[in-house]
Amino acid sequence: MNYADLFRVTLPETMLEVAALLLLAVDLGFLRKAALKTRVTVASLLGVAGCGAALWALQLQGNDWFFFPADSFGSELLVTGAYVKLAQTGILTLTALTLLLLIDSSFTRHVGEFVAVVLMAASGGLLIAGAQDLLVIFVGLELLSLGLYIITAFAKSSGKSAEAALKYYLFGGMSAAFLLFGFSYFYGLTGSTNLSEIQLVVANSGPSPLFYVAWILVVAGLGFKIAAVPFHLWAPDTYEGAPAPAAAFIASVSKVASFTLLLTFFQNWMIYQGSFGLEKSEAEKILIHSDQTWLPLATVLLVVAAASMIVGNLAALAQVSVRRLLAYSAIAHAGYILLGVAVYRMHTGNETRIFETIDPIIESQKAVLFYILTYGLTTIGAFGVVGIVERATGSDKLDSFLGLHKRNPMLAAVLLVLFLSLAGIPPLVGFWAKFNLFAAVLGVSAGPVPFALVALAVALSAVSLYYYLQVLKRAYVMPAIDNSPIKAHPVTLIVLVGIAAAVVLLGCFPALLQGWIEGFYAVS
């Protein structure tokens, strides 16, 4: 084993861990008796610096594919390059934005520990994005999940925070058990924990009934991570009870990491890996066999996607808590994204040719990445606004936003931009995220099933506009009960305005983000 290669491929995670340890030393060793605002500011800025160092480490790796162990293609544990590096860049950027929003918070005096746990959880997300082995995947998932459970419970004076953390932990433990059962069956059936080797064995020998049982268990475990129906029951309570920065982190960074892992499972290794280095005829034979194997699994994912879109949007209509509304909205968005992950398998295997299907599938992958990155950015901003209103009014209910345009016009404008983007209204970036995803779905898979699912998604997007407008109506139309101004920390307001400006800019010029994503693929 070449430890220099291991250090290179895990350098961003190492930077985050070093930053977490340095942060604890500074906060507990030098700032223990300092004012809380000082400690929060220093901890947040050190955390952001750690994310910046990790981003610098990512740049050192380059965009080309790099495998660890090196020169052992087909049995690698970790990779960097293309969509992996793109997702890791998104995770680090979203983590830094979350930590900047923490500056205006006062839910805990243990700010050093909170930021350190956030950085360690982010390192778990980075590990998930590049993992190509079942054992590494599980280690990364547990590192991320344990951090999420802890930060959910950090508001010790809040009963809702403790309740949310307990529910999150119990559901997370069950999902981990499902995932481990599925992984153990994979290993028992194929004798390997490597994803590409599992795919190749199954494609050559054909699936057994136990193989499908294993995949259903894995889908259940990963469905919990992305809050897809019927594995979503933890999300509303967690989004409502967790501190606002923690809820923003869960809704953004966790989603990016989990969906990147789904891309690894369903779009990259399960298509190409078993076909590298083979003659065209042999590659096509394996791909056709693979299509017939994965078609039932993709069908399961599509059912989950449809259920998530329906349940998430309809349940959001009945919410009076904006946090719970955002939770059910997240469930609906998970359904949209799952379409892009799974629908490419809905075609006839005998008509498939490997060199004719790679490009549309890559476009679908790019559309998924565009969606999860922009959704994560928008959601962090939304929770930032909700957190400010909640601290000022003591509640996150819909009526807490009454007259927001008079109490803080800038905050109301940010809320308007972010919620309309989540609803998919042009020319904001949320519109292009949905447009690109739905176009990619129809471009990869022709036929009545993809068309019906996209039509359902468009119809439910119209439904989502109604409950987003319920919040905006209170902010702009309905009279305020309390006309006292709502103040926000200057740094928090600058970050929120910057997020809203990015949403508008990327909506007016979507080619900026699309070109950036293309750049990661062009070198690979």
Shape: globular
What amount of the residues lies in strands? Answer: under 5%
Strand order of the largest sheet: 1-2
Average residue pLDDT: 85
Number of strands: 2
- Uncertain regions: pLDDT < 50 for 5+ in a row? 272-280, 347-357
SSE pattern, N- to C-terminal: HHHEEHHHHHHHHHHHHHHHHH
The number of domains: 1
Question: What's the Cα radius of gyration?
Answer: 22 Å
Question: N-to-C terminal Cα separation, in Å?
Answer: 25 Å
Tally of contiguous helical segments: 20
Structure keywords:
524 residues, mainly alpha, two-stranded antiparallel sheet, 20 helices, 76% helix, globular
In short:
Helix content is 76%, strand content 1%. It has 524 residues and is mainly alpha-helical. The longest helix has 40 residues, at 354-393.
Question: Can you walk me through this structure?
Answer:
With 524 residues, the chain is an all-alpha fold. It has one domain (3-523). Helices cover 76% and strands 1% of the residues. The protein is built from 20 helices and 2 strands. Strands 1-2 form a two-stranded antiparallel sheet. α10 runs antiparallel to α11 (244-268). It is globular and about 70 Å long.
